[in-house]
Design a protein that fits this description.
single chain; 621 residues; alpha+beta; 32 strands
């Protein structure tokens, strides 16, 4: 039988000392600070539900990820979710965003999770935090930092000492940020998750106990819980004795909650992720779910007294290189830039049919909702623009990267690179009058060039594919440009190293002696734009002047595949494979006056860049 608990282990309250820590990093936004006057309100568990400050309580939560929303839009999106009627919001914490390099931590700007939490608390919302270390979330590598893959012997998500050492060092930094925000300290954080859907991955209960005990030891005196899929194997694999279990699912709630009840005979029934929508992969249709069907499931759960976290309440955007990927055992499936998720609050703040339907059903169970949503943010006037300059990627290599010399190709992680592209170059000694080039260990997509001319494209899903070539006695320069299209974020294929981890061979002969250039493309200031057309991968500059910044959507008709930056901010990837046809460009990224749009096109550039006033996420299935 589950007893009322506040920390997950027999009431233990061991704390880490944080009083002398410099807490100025907790908020970089004027007027947002830890609420020192808010009373300590604990969320506890009974045999049948929750108590909130000692009163029966039903959680109605909406998921929103601070790292998928521009910081200047956090308040707006949180107000919209509050107006839908939720009393709680839930967020993951993305380790890789906060520790891009081992030992170097960032809690500013988009990574200022304390500002996000205190903003939610200031609106009267409770907060559920899911710190991982693994989060899935369709986020790059499931939130794990890429540098973990630099050690080929490290085993992820288990009691491997090397992995635990890295996790413990991260939690030593993260928990002092979160502890002052806990409800016991007058903050809005009422609950914290241990790992994420671990039962879908493994069975190392000792690993889960290590994480739970570490959270408690570092001061997490709030309710702790696990979340796993609504199947018997998942619940068994992710269960920690004495810790609240919850379920994740998207349909048939009566069956899913019955599975949870089999493994937890008493205590609250909680859908920690109610998937009312879904995310998109490149090359698929845009996913939507029937609103009435989603409302009926939510209505049923609320009527049963179950607590629900609507996943997602607001999906947001995979800005930059941060999208994750899936793999079904045969096919690699990179996730789109948009994470709209068919959510009640759309990617750009739109209030959808689902928003109003969810608001109505929540009001029916909890009473009138006294908050109204903000008005929709202003949109830019549509316009069609022409690029004004071009810079060849090949000619810009010296301004973008320092060359490294290696005997054989090496993956990004071995070179200290996490995201972006990587360029390999060697001199082939001729002749090869009729040969086939193949790449082993390719992740994810390679463009091959011979003496600067495009030879073709190779992809990881077809490892036996090759490219025919012919080289005369003089030899030739061979170049391979590889794009990391997102590390796998779910399932048994997490160890997803990028670039080339095997070798490049002509027929049976491996080619050795390589110049390698990591291209994270986090600084484009050295590019020199000319006015002449350039073939092959190139950066294209477009300028636009605005009287007033507003939300907009960038479309690239006739373009093929690449990445877009707006005033240096990476908006994300585009691909004519679809489904999505526009990239969300939020108002805070635009400037009054001159704006620069830089497009890295990997193949064939179009003639125009369009600014639109509405999104186009593609055809629905």
């Amino acid at each position: 039988m589950l007893k009322p608990i506040a920390v997950g282990l027999d009431g233990s309250r061991e704390r880490v000392a944080v009083a002398d820590r410099d807490m100025t990093h907790l908020s970089t936004h004027p007027g947002v600070a830890v609420n020192a006057t808010r009373p300590a309100v604990q969320l506890t568990v009974t045999n049948s539900g929750f108590l909130h400050a000692g009163r029966p309580h039903q959680i109605i939560s909406a998921a929103i990820h601070y790292f998928r929303v521009h910081p200047d839009s956090w308040d707006d999106r949180l107000r919209r979710l509050r107006a839908m009627g939720v009393n709680t919001v839930e967020t993951y914490i993305a380790w890789n965003l906060h520790e891009p390099v081992p030992g170097q931590h960032d809690f500013t700007g988009q990574a200022d999770v304390a500002r996000f939490i205190t903003t939610a608390g200031g609106l009267g919302l409770d907060v559920i935090v899911r710190p991982g270390p693994y989060i899935c979330a369709e986020w790059e590598f499931g939130g794990l930092p890429a540098w973990l893959l630099a050690d080929p012997d490290l085993r992820l998500r288990c009691t491997d000492e090397r992995y635990l050492t890295a996790v413990d060092a991260w939690f030593d930094v993260l928990l002092p940020v979160l502890v002052p925000l806990l409800s016991s300290n007058g903050g809005p954080v009422v609950a914290m998750q241990v790992e994420n859907e671990y039962g879908s991955y493994g069975t190392d209960t000792a690993y889960l106990q290590h994480l739970r005990d570490g959270l408690i030891r570092r001061g997490a005196d709030c309710l702790l819980f696990t979340a796993d899929g609504a199947t018997d194997p998942c619940q068994r694999g992710g269960h920690i004795p004495g810790t609240l279990a919850t379920a994740t699912f998207g349909s048939r709630p009566e069956n899913s909650l019955a599975v949870l009840r089999r493994h937890q005979p008493t205590g609250p029934l909680v859908s920690m992720e109610y998937w009312h929508g879904w995310f998109d992969h490149w090359g698929e249709h845009h996913h939507v779910r029937d609103t009435q069907e989603a409302v009926d499931d939510l209505d049923w759960m609320l009527a049963q007294g179950a607590s629900v976290n609507i996943y997602m309440g607001h999906g947001g955007t995979n800005f930059g290189w941060w999208n994750g990927a899936n793999h079904d055992g045969t096919t690699y499936q990179p996730t789109c830039t948009s994470y709209d998720y068919n959510a009640p609050v759309g990617e750009a703040g739109e209030l959808t049919e689902k928003f109003h339907a969810f608001r109505n059903v929540i009001a029916r169970h909890f009473g009138p909702i006294r908050h109204e949503p903000p008005t929709l943010p202003a949109r830019l006037t549509p316009r069609v623009l022409k690029p004004s300059g071009t810079a060849s990627l090949r000619a810009s290599l010296d301004s973008l990267s320092e060359p490294l010399q290696r005997v054989a190709p090496e993956p990004m992680e071995a070179l200290g690179q996490a995201y972006g592209l990587i360029h390999y170059r060697t001199r082939v000694r001729g002749s090869f009058p009729d040969a086939t080039l193949r790449i082993s260990g390719l992740a994810d997509r390679a463009q091959v060039f011979l003496d600067g001319a495009p030879l073709g494209v190779l992809e990881r899903d077809r490892p036996m594919d090759g490219l025919p070539l012919s080289i005369d006695a003089a030899g030739a320069e061979l170049e391979v440009l590889v794009e990391n299209m997102g590390r796998i974020n779910y399932g048994p294929w997490l160890e997803d190293r990028k670039g080339i981890s095997g070798g490049v061979r002509l027929d049976t002969q491996y080619q050795f002696g390589w110049e390698i250039r990591p291209l994270p493309l986090n600084d484009l200031t050295g590019l020199q734009f000319g006015r002449l057309a350039t073939d092959g991968p190139a950066f294209h500059l477009t300028e636009v002047h605005l009287a007033t910044p507003a939300d907009g959507f960038i479309a690239l008709p006739g373009w093929t595949k690449g990445m877009v930056w707006l005033n240096g901010f990476a908006l994300g990837r585009y691909w004519d494979r679809g489904p999505q046809r526009t990239l969300y460009a939020p108002a805070p990224v635009w400037r009054t006056g001159r704006n620069e749009i830089v497009v890295l096109e990997l193949h064939q550039a179009g003639e125009t860049v369009e600014i639109r006033d509405r999104p186009d996420l593609g055809l629905t299935g």
